[in-house]
Design brief:
Length: 316
């Protein structure tokens, strides 16, 4: 077939407007720390955040997913819901800066970066306390919204957190702040490099009591159904590439926009193979992006976002 025709009949394509770029903001000064397990990804303090934000705006990526690395952690994860916390400061910096204020700021809501034990909720006698964690997640969401976050993305996987967050946002006047729920989030080994980047590895045990068993597809649909009933506006499926069947199932099951989270381990594997000259990085990354679109994702959260945006521009 002729290349022009092939291009005309192409069923799926990734566009720059599909991309969401995760950014790690660290408390402190003059920080630009490379994350060893994620080549090309750094943590920035607010005074140097412009270096990263300029790269984002230069290539036209429209949205950020913010993660915070606080200086101090405690049992209750209080850094998450502190109005002066690192993510709140970062949001205010972005939203009060003429150059960056049009970036869509999505705030990841979870306690694991802020708790001394590294779990996503409160812990008592080695058990993660679901219901007791909900008010803290809700408080975090409201605090991010107050700082100016455009979208709230709970990734903790506590049951009933979407409802608790929605109610708290509404009560505090943030009726139009949407919730992008990590509904189909699996207890995955692919999060390994992220836990280096965000210093959030659990100090004991694992996350299997609140994240899903990778063997379960139907359960993902139940989680999606529950989150929709509680008021989710968008759905995140995570990880992405090994779970394209789940994305496809969610696509046929509901009408909400779906974001596929191409997670840290997926990124690092590609980077490592590319660094060794074993794969063609650009072609492999674009194939993954297109595959996720084909599976049914509307948006892709990816550490490759800036490269993808640049490659798309070059191809114009
Ligand atoms: C916080 C959170 C994690 C990721 C996103 N939000 C880590 C985890 O659940 O352990 C993983 C992202 C990635 O691997 O890129 N709960």
């Amino acid at each position: 077939m002729n290349a022009v025709l092939r291009d005309m009949v192409r069923e799926n394509r990734i566009q720059v407007s599909d991309l969401i770029y995760p950014v790690f903001v660290a408390e402190g000064q003059d920080i630009r720390n490379s994350v060893a397990s994620m080549p090309g990804i750094c943590q920035y303090s607010i005074d140097r955040l412009s270096e990263e934000l300029d790269r984002v705006t230069d290539v036209g990526v429209p949205a950020l997913l913010l993660f915070g690395i606080p200086k101090h952690k405690d049992e209750w994860g209080s850094g998450a819901y502190d109005d002066g916390g690192i993510v709140q400061q970062a949001i205010r910096f972005i939203k009060t800066n003429e150059k960056y204020k049009n970036l869509l700021v999505i705030a990841d809501v979870c306690l694991c970066e802020y708790t001394s034990h590294g779990h996503c909720g409160l812990v008592k006698d080695g058990v993660i306390l679901n219901d007791e964690t909900l008010p803290l997640l809700a408080k975090t969401a409201v605090s991010y919204a107050r700082a100016g976050a455009d979208v709230i993305a709970p990734s903790d996987m506590m049951d009933k957190r979407v409802g608790a967050i929605r109610a708290a946002l509404d009560e505090n006047g943030f009726l139009y702040t949407p919730v992008m729920a990590y509904s189909a989030k699996f207890a995955s080994a692919f999060y390994g490099p992220f836990r280096d980047a965000a210093h959030s590895a659990p100090g004991f045990g694992d996350r299997k009591t609140y994240q899903m068993d990778p063997a379960n597809g139907r359960e993902a649909l139940r989680e999606v159904e529950q989150d929709i009933l509680e008021g989710a506006d968008m759905i995140i499926a995570k990880p992405a590439a090994c779970y394209m069947d789940v994305i496809k199932d969610i696509r046929s099951f509901c009408k909400l926009p779906i974001a596929a989270y191409n997670v840290s381990g997926e990124y690092s594997m590609v980077k490592a193979a590319a660094a060794n000259g074993w794969i063609d990085e650009k072609k492999v990354v674009m194939e993954i992006m297109t595959g996720l679109k084909r599976a049914g994702a509307d948006l892709v959260i990816t550490y490759h976002a800036l490269d993808v945006a640049r490659w798309l521009k070059e191809a114009e």
